[in-house]
Amino acid sequence: LFAGAADFATAADKLxxxxxxxxxxxxxxxxSNVGKSSLINSLTGRTTLARxxxxxxxxxxxxFFDLGGKLTLVDMPGxxxxxxxxxxxAAWTELIHAYLQGRANLARVYVLIDARHGIKPNDGEVLDExxxxxxxxxxxxxxxxxLKKSEIQARLDATSAALxxxxxxxxxxxxxxxxxxxGIAELRASxxxxxxx
Length: 197
Ligand code: GDP
Hints:
Keywords: Cell cycle, Cell division, GTP-binding, Magnesium, Metal-binding, Nucleotide-binding, Septation. This is Probable GTP-binding protein EngB. Necessary for normal cell division and for the maintenance of normal septation. Its cofactor is Mg(2+). By secondary structure, this protein is of the alpha/beta class. The chain has one domain (8-196): Rossmann fold (3-Layer(aba) Sandwich). It is 34% helix and 22% strand. The protein has helices at 36-44, 86-102, 121-133, 149-163, 184-196, and strands at residues 8-12, 24-30, 62-66, 71-75, 106-114, 137-142, 169-175. Helix 3 links the parallel strand 5 and strand 6. The protein is globular. It starts with 7 loop residues before the first strand and ends with a helix. Bound molecules: guanosine-5'-diphosphate. Guanosine-5'-diphosphate binds at residues 30, 32-38, 52-53, 56, 78, 142-143, 145-146, 177-179. Guanosine-5'-diphosphate (GDP) binds at residues 30, 32-38, 52-53, 56, 78, 142-143, 145-146, 177-179.
């Protein structure tokens, strides 16, 4: 699934430049610095797909990676970075809104949440958007290696409780670490199940 040889990448910063729909699409969203680039690289086994150590909040575009025709992976711009202007936040919101409303082949959005911090208010706003657009989403906790064993279950329980009344939330939460590789196989299996549907 993730072993395609040549990838084709497209970036869109406005609705008109979204690539045509093709196969299934999965998208990754999360606050700046949540570990999204690292996770996408771990998931795909490519180090060049999503560049890490980028300037937070700089890329206000959707990045589309065609993984061999059957699956497109969409890297959504990180949110919640304080230094971004209100105008940029508004442009981001408008683009994301338009994308979520019109993307019939979008099978699921994986919403990345830092396992140390849990769901923050601006994550909640994104989940509100997804619920309103009736786009299926699943929570992926990142940086699981940074938590003590005793803290992990508490974080999972609190996150589950926060999702209970959210209609578009997939109940299963995936705990991952790009450092240790924990949960990466589970995330791959989740994607594979979507494609089999
Ligand atoms: P992005 O801004 O969401 O794309 O996040 P990055 O992937 O660039 O990672 C942001 C920071 O978190 C970097 O300093 C990474 O080294 C760190 N990081 C990423 N993944 C992990 C992880 O699994 N565990 C830990 N402890 N740190 C991580």
